[in-house]
Amino acid sequence: MAKKKGGREIIKLKSTESTEVYWTRKNKRNTPDRLELKKYDKKLQRHTVFKEAK
């Protein structure tokens, strides 16, 4: 099966406080602005803000 065009894209989320990185997918059509999530940082052992990076 072929992939659909214009759907989800793989993005990288970088921590604002350390060098930790998460990889996830988002739908560019529904959320065109940059993503900002609060996730668990393994190095700091607490929840921090992760922002979408290029």
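[next item in queue]
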Amino acid sequence: MLITVADFCVRVNSEIGPLVAELKEQTGRGGASESFAWESSLPRLAEALSAPSLQPLHLFFDRKGQLELEYRLPASGSWCDAVLLGQGPRGPAAVIVELKHWTTADDRPGPTEPLIYHMGSLVSHPSVQVGSYVEYCQRFHSSAEIRVHGQRLCSVYSVSQP
């Protein structure tokens, strides 16, 4: 299934449950945690993609699980949350998007710039992950002459315990 960003945004805002069910079927991925992540992430992704210039770009859903939403990098065990494909002002373009569901209230800088303390652990900043995906795609797809860009989106949420 090939869907424009505009159509994707409409479906997220009007029928997220059926869209998540379809994603589970299309990708073969989808336990309760995956469904929760999609139900939380997709509205934020749709919001981030609301710019008029992104509306004609496409998301592709493949029955083999090789899709641009939860896209597995070729010859790798890594998955990008979303990859947008389309035509940019200078030719074909791809935009890599990584969504994070982090409560950031207690985050603080780590000992070096790419590291942060998150929930008491020292971890790489999410932009490092996106940067490595972009670099990987630029090397792997170098013959395609596609400009690859990345965007990290943090969705902040709080969970209250009963």
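[queue empty]
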